[in-house]
Amino acid sequence: MSYRIPTSEVLAEAIRDVLRRRPTVGSQRKLTELVLRELKGIDEDYTASEERIRKVAIDSGSAKIEIHCREGEERSRYTRCPVCGSKMNRIRNETVFGGTVTLGYKCTKCPYWTGLKRRMPIRYVFYGDGYTKIVEYDKSDPIDH
Ligand SMILES: [Zn+2]
Asked: Residue 34 pLDDT > 70, yes or no?
């Protein structure tokens, strides 16, 4: 079976097309399925992985992303964002003694952040440009902004 890798531009456009038709897509697997269907309409041999679609969606700004996490027991040691691969910055707080203390890490590109205990991304929700309404979720399923 032959396959071809679409450029980031083609991929970003396919993501936009999907989100033009539906305001939100509730999982990465679903987004991948819809984007692949879109791509096959252009070229039967096009393919893309879930991870690449997520990264292109963030990189190109073709989708807004909401990251749902659960807190693990491990300490955070991220230098790269687990969601999009970008650099992470320390979240610092000044102490009363004039020093600083690291509270966690925040991605420079997407909404991902983590405290000192590593927050593991477990689910992604994707939004198109036209989406403004904030959906309410159960408290046990916190949303990152
Ligand atoms: Zn990121």
From this structure: yes
Confidence of residue 138 (pLDDT cuts 50, 70, 90): very low
CA 18 to chain CA centroid, Å, is 16
Alpha carbon of 108 to ligand 1 centroid (Å): 7
How far apart are the CA of 34 and the centre of ligand 1, in A?
23
DSSP string, 9-52: HHHHHHHHHHHHH-SEE--HHHHHHHHHHHHHHH-TTB---HHH
Residue 16 phi, psi dihedral angles, 5° rounding: -60, -45
Q: How far apart are CA 56 and CA 15, in angstroms?
A: 9
Q: How remote is the CA of residue 44 from the centroid of ligand 1, in Å?
A: 31
Strands 88-94, 100-107: parallel, antiparallel or unpaired by DSSP? antiparallel
pLDDT band, very low/low/confident/very high, at 137 (cuts 50, 70, 90): very low
Per-residue pLDDT, 1: 63
